[in-house]
Specification:
Number of strands: 8
CATH class: Alpha Beta
CATH topology: TIM Barrel
Shape: globular
Largest sheet: 8 strands, parallel, barrel
Strand order of the largest sheet: 1-2-3-4-5-6-7-8
CATH superfamily: Glycosidases
Radius of gyration: 20 Å
CATH architecture: Alpha-Beta Barrel
Helix content: 25-40%
Number of domains: 1
Bound molecules: zinc ion
Number of helices: 14
């Protein structure tokens, strides 16, 4: 892989900007080149987004965005195209495959705000995601796939400072299938009793083996998806959405709760994309430096860090929790600067719409200037 390819990217979660500002695809490509964009991670009609903290709008009148034309123009411009696959965040798939995740008390994970996560050990569910991915690769000949929600469930965005308590934080998954697979893989028999009693054993004396099992489950799914991706395009890259839990602030939470072992995954992931959403976690912008460096210390693979283009989780159940209410030009630049002075190999901004809204909606070029200042192409 060419290191320049991942130096700077944008996540495209919606196409509202396309309809709203009347830009042609050529206008957009020119803008991206001017910002030094080397890759985009995008939803498309084969890999559709679902409303998360960022809702997506569909234009009236039945107009459609031409994913293939956009992809081809990006290729011509030398910008890599990663399709964004929501792996575990897929409500319809969960309903169909009935792979509801179960916590340490034996309670099924219900939707919280916009979030629901799948139990990843269902073969039927994994196969259904594989077929979606294959279809997308076939139609769009993507340069890579950005794997999102590739983990055991958990609403990590709620882990505000001082609130991440491993003893009470909901852990997944203790469904019958996961418990049986654990015993089969490790040869460790579970105690008799209800789910809570078995979970207490796994989270206590068997913690190491249980965490190891969870990380192996996720690695195995990534490996299967990667084989499919490589079968379609032998050079395609796998980028992983990485929960930004650095050890200094969240202990072993990234592995224990989400089953993400960066070192273990290093032979099946080409690029780790750290979700450096500092405002969501109510951390200072400078935290992005230590977090990027932490993930770099775990792997020889490239690591990039994403920064937010807008404040999120400030309304409804998330209001009044101490998060910054706004990400203005100074905060945005501070975040980019923090990544730039870390050992990360690149950065991305979540989302392209936030950058375009500044420029075309508010006639404010400060975000674009900050990007060029810290991540301009050489
Ligand atoms: Zn399960």
């Amino acid at each position: 892989m060419n290191a320049e390819m991942i130096r700077f990217g944008l996540k495209i979660t919606d196409f509202d900007w396309y309809w709203e500002y009347g830009l042609s695809l050529d206008d957009v490509i020119e803008k991206l080149l001017g910002l030094g964009v080397r890759f985009v991670s995008a939803y498309n009609k084969y890999l559709p987004g679902a409303d998360s903290a960022v809702p997506t709008a569909v234009p009236a009148g039945g107009a459609v965005f031409n994913d293939r034309a956009f992809r081809d123009k990006l290729r011509k411009a030398g910008i890599a195209y990663f399709g964004y696959l929501n792996f575990g965040f897929h409500e319809d798939g969960i309903k169909k495959c009935h792979n509801y995740a179960v916590d340490q008390a034996g309670k099924r994970l219900e939707k919280i705000d916009w979030y629901i996560g799948a139990c990843p050990s269902s073969d039927e569910f994994v196969r259904s995601r594989l077929s979606v991915l294959e279809e997308a690769m076939r139609h769009l000949d993507m340069d890579g796939v950005h794997l999102g929600f590739m983990r055991f469930p958990g609403f990590w965005e709620l882990a505000l400072p001082g609130t991440f308590e491993p003893d009470v934080w909901p852990e997944y998954c203790f469904c019958g299938r996961c418990l049986a697979a654990f015993s089969e893989k490790t040869g460790i028999a579970l105690p008799r009793g209800n789910t809570a009693e078995k979970a207490a054993f796994l989270r206590g004396p068997a913690r190491k083996e249980w965490t190891g099992f969870k990380c192996a489950v996720i690695r195995n799914v990534i490996d299967r998806l990667r084989s499919c991706i490589r079968h379609c395009n032998k050079d395609a890259l796998v980028m992983l959405n990485t929960v930004p839990f650095n050890a200094a602030r969240y202990g072993s939470g990234g592995k224990d709760f989400f089953g993400q072992d960066i070192t273990l995954f290093s032979d099946v992931v080409d690029v780790f994309e750290v979700m450096g959403y500092h405002q969501i976690l109510a951390q200072p912008a400078g935290w992005l430096t230590e977090t990027s460096n932490y993930f770099k210390s775990l792997t020889d693979r490239p690591v990039i860090c994403t920064v937010q283009g807008a404040a999120l989780y400030t309304k409804g159940m998330h209001a009044g929790k101490g998060r910054l209410e706004n990400i203005g030009p100074a905060e945005f630049e501070a975040a980019l600067a923090a990544v730039s002075r870390s050992r990360a190999d690149g950065a991305a901004v979540f989302t392209l719409s936030d950058v375009f809204r500044r420029e075309y909606g508010e006639h404010d070029v400060s975000f674009g200037n900050a990007i060029r200042k810290h991540f301009a192409a050489p």
